[in-house]
Amino acid sequence: MTVRLVPTIDALRAELDLARATGRRIGFVPTMGYLHDGHASLMRAARADNDLVVASIFVNPLQFGANEDLSSYPRDLERDTEISAEAGVDLIFNPSVDEMYPFGPVLSSVSVPALSNQWEGATRPTHFAGMATVVTKLFWIVGACRAYFGEKDFQQLAIIRRFVADLSIPVDVVGCPIVRADDGLALSSRNSYLSESERVAASVLNRALRAGAALIEDGESSPTVVMEAMAGVVGEEPLATLDYAALVDPATLEVPERIPATCRLLIAAQVGRPRLLDNLGVNAPGGAP
Ligand code: PAF
After folding, report:
1. 127 is known as an active-site residue
2. Which member of 39, 44, 137, 152 is catalytic?
3. β-bridge mates for residue 26, sequence order
4. How far apart are CA 188 and CA 83, in angstroms?
5. Is the CB of 32 under 6 A from ligand 1?
6. Is 84 close to ligand 1, i.e. is its CB under 6 Å away?
7. Domain boundaries, the chain
8. Which of 2, 189, 208, 255 could form a Cys-Cys staple with 233, CB 3.0–4.6 A?
9. C-beta separation of 110 from 137 below 8 A
10. 30 CA to centre of ligand 1 in angstroms
């Protein structure tokens, strides 16, 4: 399978407009590169459902805070091209920052404050508006398509689903399951920052989620008990510092009073340099409707 790099907005639009005009369905996988098997699983899903698959690789400055890792964010276009080709991608849109933001500072913004202010947004206050703005821009460039996102960034996915619905953007958003290493660690480009001992410690996030899920499946009805149990598991790992361990309603991302029939456990912790995120969907046996 050959994959072609398309660095400009005009060239990508022309190609995708032509494809749509001949009845081809477009699958789109937005990424910031440094691809891993989680990204490849999104690309394979897009390949299975569509006639033409485009991935974007763009490290979006708007979604990094002033003290975050924008300049050191890992990049490897050659390897990314190979992974994309193997996963069945036809086109990689890899614009420069000037191509995406030719007028310098971006004065317009898309934001969904009700879903953005808590959890990740509490620690990274500008992150979700930067993410939503670039995803909206990418959707405008790619046009009508199915777009594939990992459930690993669960809050991001909830925000994208909401602004796509609110703004009637002609994109079908497809959420895909988290891909994990053998010890349960969710794959992430930032895992490359972990030292050997931190990498071992990082599996504590998944252990905490599974401890929370086990309590729910055993009939626990209090979100607080579940959240404290998850925090307790992380507390036992000296290399991890918990940011939050939460049980939320999957649509509102708020902590309910009683555990509903379907809920999401969210967790974030600092392990060495990176902040790691993970989450798990759980069905409660006697959950509140
Ligand atoms: O999840 C990511 O990699 C990024 O937030 C996204 C969706 C590609 C926007 O830059």
Report:
1. no
2. 39
3. 52
4. 15
5. yes
6. no
7. 4-176, 189-281
8. 208
9. no
10. 6
pLDDT digits (tens, 9 = 90+) for 50-67: 999 999 999 999 999 999
Q: How many CB atoms lie within 10 A of CB 167?
A: 10
Domain 4-176 class in CATH = alpha beta
Residue 131 beta carbon below 6 angstroms from any ligand 1 atom: yes
Pocket test for ligand 1, best of 153, 163, 279 (most atoms within 8 A of CB): 153
Q: Are strands 52-57 and 26-31 parallel, antiparallel or unpaired?
A: parallel
Length of the chain: 289
Round to the nearest angstrom and report the end-to-end CA distance of the chain: 48
Residues of the chain under the 50 pLDDT cut: none
In terms of pTM, does the model score above 0.85?
yes
Q: Which one, of 277, 58, 57, 43, lies nearest residue 148 by Cα?
A: 43
Nearest CA to ligand 1 atom 8: 31
